[in-house]
Design a protein that fits this description.
37% of the residues lie in helices and 20% in strands. It has 286 residues and is an alpha+beta fold. It folds into two domains: 16-83; 93-236 and 271-278, Gcn5-related N-acetyltransferase (GNAT) (Aminopeptidase, 3-Layer(aba) Sandwich).
Length: 286
Amino acid sequence: MASTTYRYSELCAPAWSDVYDQIELRVSSALCRISASTGISQRDLSKQLLLHLPRFSVPELGDMRVIEAEAERLAVRCSSLRQTYQSWLRQPCMHRLRREELVLKVCPVDVAKIIHERFHYIGAYHEGIAHLGLYVVGCEEIPIALASIAPMDLHVLDSLFPTTVEKEKALVLSRVFAFDWAPRNTVSYLLSLVAHWIKTNFYQVQTLFTFLNPNLGFSGSSFRAANWRAFIEVKPTASYLDGEYITFRRFGSLSSSSRSRVERCPYELQPLRLLRYDLKRSTRRG
């Protein structure tokens, strides 16, 4: 890796954005080659790779073989997880979003669990209040896109929602996902339908929140198109158990012996962006 000067935080952690600038071409090359050889889409593999590369040291990332080996490992893992569900990936490509042909429905838990664990980049099921799927009318075995809603459990917002009654005024949107064969603007349309569904079914809810992770290349364009707004930034954490990314919830459930094996990301990641959507309602009910 070429010599460079890294920005350092108060904890002397190099900025991941600076490190990534030095390896971006190598990552792109690895993604192109491994995607072609394994059949895993570059979009899927990119999120997985960007999630896992920050566990490696700067010298390790200077070795192209390390990047390619990690990309291949993740692609093989994806292939194994999805082996039984290849038909879910091979649906006819939808070139246009035809709203009259789509319907929002509550997605069965077993289907949502498969999408969370085998197709979503985080790879962990998030149990919530409901999983809402966007389906093609008449083809309702699997959704073209999915969003899950959960109770307001974000500790960073405890001061805004200090009581149970206050917490009931907000929900958290998580695990937003769309298959590659879904048309453009699918996610923004899904978000608008989810907001309407919540207005109808949870009248007490006034606000929705969700996290956007810029470290994985997410720009938030679909959320902006659906009128979500930036709220605050939150310091991220990235933890890995036996080489695999684990969520904060998963970390909290680990035994003390398992926690001792957890690796922490050695870099200063870009802050997570907490987005907010205010549910505007008519003053009349019924």
